[in-house]
């Protein structure tokens, strides 16, 4: 698969302080890239750099293999975006807002407005001024504006923020449709994993301006989600057995509780029970556990918090 | 560029601009007539055709320099304040061109409004003068080409100086600062220097100098906005 959008060592500093530092993201053609990080981690700044609102102080952005400059207008035409709170000319009607958008983007297709509004489920409101819209409607109109010119890349900053569960679900359906049916590449940021966990193909995690993890969802699910939880009294002996009799190395011991987490997928529950019994290690309980991804990401995002506290 | 100007105009409420233009003209004509009712004022301000023309120019310039600040607030300051400018800056168009389109609109409107209003007020006043005899002056219907040239120069200078408030307004994206500074400029220029009826406007070099400063200011403001992060 080819990369459609990449950043190389992208950096932005305000008065010497780096808010984004050396971020190298790789977004593949046609995927949904979930961009995860707490508030203030630098997600919006990165997205603004991609849409030419903020100029990087270091590194570069590459779209379809071409380096982006402040004047790469042809490349920018291929991006649709909705960044932060959706902004409109509030006094103008929804239709007029979209019309003007198309004109500025150099896109002339009169039918597009109606089709796009239908796609985002906004009907019979085109002639209402935007100031009468609710937040949910504005968000959907913002999405309509982002996709109306049929871009190849869609950059959405916290698109479901502030929506009710129904609205969130509806938007997620639209994202999936855009990705799977229309072949768009989506970059969606969020501070809440649950919002993008189900739809993202790849996840990038950012903390304090640094990209600390970039991996496919599949990979993350396989390596981190499932594990075997073994509770024993004599954990040093159990650990010894695991290492030497079963040749398992990928496990973690929580000493205070006598719990052992085994991440190795090659070893079955049966094998473990058998060898523990053979070596006279008393098992209190053993079962498969699914660690919610949420915990994993929390660990990532807040990883050095305990560290910081110690310092 | 032409396209950008057209798009900009589509977002503006042209009807209300036209209405303002008419109302301001009506107000100035009425003011001229009010002054003329008072014989003492006539002997002080309206002793010659030059006097009449200068008073008209002064009123028109005052009104439309301030109105330029109002337009500027609408299509520049408020866009920055409401962040709709970020929308425009995401488009595949250069920021400089986008802002220039806005400045050109304001400049053209101000230029056209000043020239048109001076003529409208002058002719209206001269027609009314024929009926009501405010002054014994004969206000002819033909204006010399010298006067027209003077008028055009004056209008260009006013376009320039009407851009000065942009500097004050853009510092904190403040509409009141924009309009207040324009009123301040007008007040400063129209104040009398001494007892006879000269004011800063009548010293030609001053409006022209301010005009040049205005154009430089506008350029500075545009340069800043082009570089800025949003």
From TrEMBL, chain A:
Signal peptide: none annotated. Residues 5-233 form the ABC transporter domain. It comes from the Bacteria. The keyword ATP-binding applies. GO terms for molecular function: ATP binding. Belongs to the ABC transporter superfamily. SUPFAM superfamilies: P-loop containing nucleoside triphosphate hydrolases. It comes from Jeotgalibacillus terrae. InterPro entries: AAA+_ATPase (IPR003593), ABC_transporter-like_ATP-bd (IPR003439), ABC_transporter-like_CS (IPR017871), P-loop_NTPase (IPR027417). Pfam families: ABC_tran (PF00005). This is ABC transporter ATP-binding protein. The keyword Isomerase does not apply.
From TrEMBL, chain B:
The keyword rRNA processing does not apply. Signal peptide: none annotated. Keywords: Membrane, Transmembrane, Transmembrane helix. The chain crosses the membrane at residues 12-35, 55-77, 98-125, 147-168, 175-194, 200-222. It comes from the Bacteria. The keyword Iron does not apply. Pfam families: ABC2_membrane_4. This is ABC transporter permease. It comes from Jeotgalibacillus terrae. The lineage of its organism: Bacteria, Bacillati, Bacillota, Bacilli, Bacillales.
């Amino acid at each position: 698969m080819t990369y459609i959008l990449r950043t190389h060592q992208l950096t932005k500093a305000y008065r010497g302080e780096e808010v984004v530092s050396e971020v190298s993201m790789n977004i593949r053609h046609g995927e949904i890239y979930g961009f995860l990080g707490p508030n203030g981690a630098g997600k919006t700044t990165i997205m603004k750099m991609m849409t030419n609102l903020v100029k990087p102080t270091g590194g570069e952005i590459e779209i379809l293999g071409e380096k982006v400059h402040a004047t790469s207008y042809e490349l920018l035409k291929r991006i649709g975006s909705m960044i932060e709170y959706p902004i409109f000319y509030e006094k103008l009607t929804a239709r007029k807002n979209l019309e003007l958008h198309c004109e500025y983007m150099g896109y002339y297709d009169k039918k597009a407005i109606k089709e796009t509004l239908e796609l985002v489920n906004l009907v019979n409101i085109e002639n209402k001024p935007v100031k009468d819209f609710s937040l949910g409607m504005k968000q959907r109109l913002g999405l309509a504006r982002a996709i109306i010119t049929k871009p190849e890349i869609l950059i959405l900053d916290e698109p479901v923020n502030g929506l009710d569960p129904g609205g969130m679900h509806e938007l997620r359906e639209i994202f999936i449709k855009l990705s799977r049916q229309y072949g768009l590449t989506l970059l969606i940021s969020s501070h809440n994993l649950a919002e993008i966990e189900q739809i993202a193909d790849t996840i990038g995690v950012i903390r304090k301006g640094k990209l600390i993890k970039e991996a496919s969802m599949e990979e993350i699910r396989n390596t981190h989600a499932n594990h075997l939880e073994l509770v024993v009294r004599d954990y040093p002996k159990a650990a010894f057995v695991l290492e030497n009799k079963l040749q398992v190395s990928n496990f973690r011991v929580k000493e205070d509780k006598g719990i052992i987490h085994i991440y190795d997928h090659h070893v079955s529950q049966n094998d473990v029970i058998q060898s523990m019994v053979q070596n006279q290690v008393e098992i209190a309980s053993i079962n498969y556990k699914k660690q919610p991804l949420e915990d994993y990401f929390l660990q990532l995002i807040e990883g050095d918090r305990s560290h910081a506290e110690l310092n | 560029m032409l396209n950008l100007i057209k798009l900009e105009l589509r977002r503006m409420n042209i009807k209300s601009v036209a209405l303002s233009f008419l109302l301001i003209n009506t107000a100035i004509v009425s003011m001229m007539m009010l002054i003329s009712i008072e014989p003492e004022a006539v002997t002080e301000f309206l002793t010659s055709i030059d006097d009449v023309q200068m008073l008209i120019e002064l009123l028109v310039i005052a009104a439309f320099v301030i109105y330029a600040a109002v337009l500027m607030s609408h299509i520049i300051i408020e866009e920055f304040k409401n962040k709709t400018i970020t929308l425009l800056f995401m488009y595949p168009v250069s920021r400089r061109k986008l802002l220039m389109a806005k400045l050109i609109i304001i400049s053209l409107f101000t230029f056209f409004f000043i020239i048109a209003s001076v003529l409208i007020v002058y002719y209206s006043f001269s027609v009314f003068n024929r009926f009501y005899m405010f002054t014994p002056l004969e206000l002819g219907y033909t204006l010399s080409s010298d006067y027209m040239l003077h008028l055009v120069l004056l209008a260009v200078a006013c376009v320039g100086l009407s851009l000065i408030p942009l500097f004050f307004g853009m510092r904190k994206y403040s509409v009141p600062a924009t309009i207040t500074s324009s009123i301040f400029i007008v007040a400063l220029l129209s104040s009398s220097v001494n007892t006879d009826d000269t004011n800063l406007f009548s010293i030609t070099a001053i409006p022209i100098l301010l005009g040049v400063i205005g154009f430089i200011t506008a350029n500075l403001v545009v340069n800043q906005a082009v570089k800025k992060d949003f």
